[in-house]
Automatic annotation (TrEMBL):
Residues 6-239 form the ABC transporter domain. It holds the Pfam family ABC_tran. This is ABC transporter ATP-binding protein. The keyword Flavoprotein does not apply. Belongs to the ABC transporter superfamily. GO terms for molecular function: ATP binding. Coiled coil: none annotated. Keywords: Amino-acid transport, ATP-binding, Nucleotide-binding, Transport. It comes from the Bacteria. Gene3D superfamilies: P-loop containing nucleotide triphosphate hydrolases. PROSITE patterns: ABC_TRANSPORTER_1, ABC_TRANSPORTER_2.
Amino acid sequence: MSAPLLQLDGVHTHIGAYHILHGVDLQVARGELTVLLGRNGAGKTTTLRTIMGLWPASSGAIRFDGAEIGALSTPEIAHRGIAYVPENMGIFGDLTVRENMLLAARGAKRVEDIDTACLDRVFGLFPALKRFWQHPAGLLSGGQKQMLAVARAIIEPRQLLLIDEPSKGLAPAIIQNMIAAFRELKQTDTTILLVEQNFNFARQLGDKVAVMDGGRIVHAGTMADLAGDEGLQQRLLGLSLAAHQ
């Protein structure tokens, strides 16, 4: 087996006086979608933010593509090929969709400088963005804003996407559109670490799964194994995935 693209070993994170992550051990396989599950407050978002350097780890090691990145700044981590889509999406509502995309394409000074193949791929995944290209992003629907947030993350080649609850607050029909887009994105061999509370969404997309509780990883394995074991679901998550289909 090849080495994981991302590996966390014994990662602790403190935020002020609060000890949030208590020795997280996590591996994200290259070219796969790993889902990070857990109850509210388990430490999932903190894990993503720690990987991205937004909240520095107090101790432990974070390795990306074989190199230690735990001491790097967020811009340096992004430059290595990691993109982060936060739960609040991070788009600029006063700017147009076009302007949001241009800001995300760091190597471009004009839209014409954006790689045509990348832009075509974005429009293929999210056709609504092409329709609303000149519209202020703040006027988009919740689903369209989420599409824009993901599109900003992939407008340049990335090795790893960190995505926090992309289906939160979306209507069921829009969630299905997002699932279809993520399936297409998976075909490009993009590696994804996804935090998600919608278990049907997670079940349909995940290759691997890690479950957090109390700031630690308490289970890691394949999504197929977790989806097929209701007893394990009840023990780890307090619910059944079947109830969320």
